[in-house]
Amino acid sequence: MTALAAPALVLMVVVNAYPVVYAASQSLRDGNLLDPGDFVGLQNFTEILSDPLFWRAVRFTLLFTVSGVLGSWAIGYALALAFKQPFRGRGVLKVAFLLPWVVPVVVTSMSWNWLVATAESPLPRLFAAIGLPDVLFLADPTMAVAIVCVFKVWISFPFMFLMMSAAMEGIDPSVYEASTVDGAGRWATLTRMTLPLTAKSTYISWVLMSMFTINDFPTVFLLTGGGPVDATTSLVVLAYRTVFQSFQPGYGVGVAFIMTAALVAISLALFRSIRKVD
């Protein structure tokens, strides 16, 4: 079996290794998209770590990731609990709740732009109608950050809903029957049985969603483009703009490598939690 799998493994290593090695080489040079430039060692990384824009992107990426992961998980878990018991129309509602995840992000981002982008959009007009101050949601830095984070939760909670529903369906019903016999209430059943028994699936979903969110380019770029005044510039958007708009691949690839290191650290921490659960 090993001999049969060897060609595929070699091809996989070659296909993945070459871009990584080339990118690592680019991160150590001061070239552009056409000329690799001169070798500058760790100068690009020094510039990155001393750049205020990079640290602003780090702060936003952390906020974006934490709110996206925990917010989508909380909504997905609550829905999974609600759908655990059969009721009329359950299947139709499940499909309806999957739509934010199924619909292409381009269509969803256009819908949200229509909803909040201008003073004539429905949400600002609703605010004005009930006497609240005029708010341009995507022009104000604080509001733009909030809208992007809410948008991420909106398109991500169906994934968590599926993961948590599958985890809950895997719990043996006799466990709940025993808890009922022992007199456990709903809160005790949730905190001492359902949450611990679905902890492994929870940590796995957090790992996956952290990867999806940190690497999420279209959600931010299509909704705000990283603005206003770089308030919603995430690390992946910063890397893209630096490479393809400022034509500084060394700096941009350096940002990407720092992102990769952060993802590895997050994944290792969560995988340790998974092993503890096992």
Note the overall shape: globular
Question: Helicity range of the residues?
Answer: over 70%
CATH topology: MetI-like fold
Strand content: under 5%
Count the E strands. 0
State the fourth-level CATH superfamily.
MetI-like
Helical element count? 13
Distance between the termini: 29 Å
- Unreliable stretches, pLDDT < 50, 5 or more residues? none
What is the oligomer described by this structure?
single chain
Most strands sheet = none
- What is the CATH first-level class name? Mainly Alpha
Class computed from helices, strands and strand pairing: mainly alpha
Overall average pLDDT: 84
Pfam families: BPD_transp_1
Family: Belongs to the binding-protein-dependent transport system permease family.
Transmembrane segments: 60-83, 95-115, 135-155, 203-229, 249-271
Keywords: Cell membrane, Membrane, Transmembrane, Transmembrane helix, Transport
How is this fold's topology laid out?
Blueprint lengths: L1 H26 L15 H7 L2 H31 L7 H13 L2 H12 L5 H8 L11 H29 L3 H9 L4 H12 L1 H16 L3 H6 L11 H10 L4 H29 L1
Helix pairs in contact: 1-13, 2-13, 3-7, 3-10, 4-7, 7-10, 10-13, 12-13
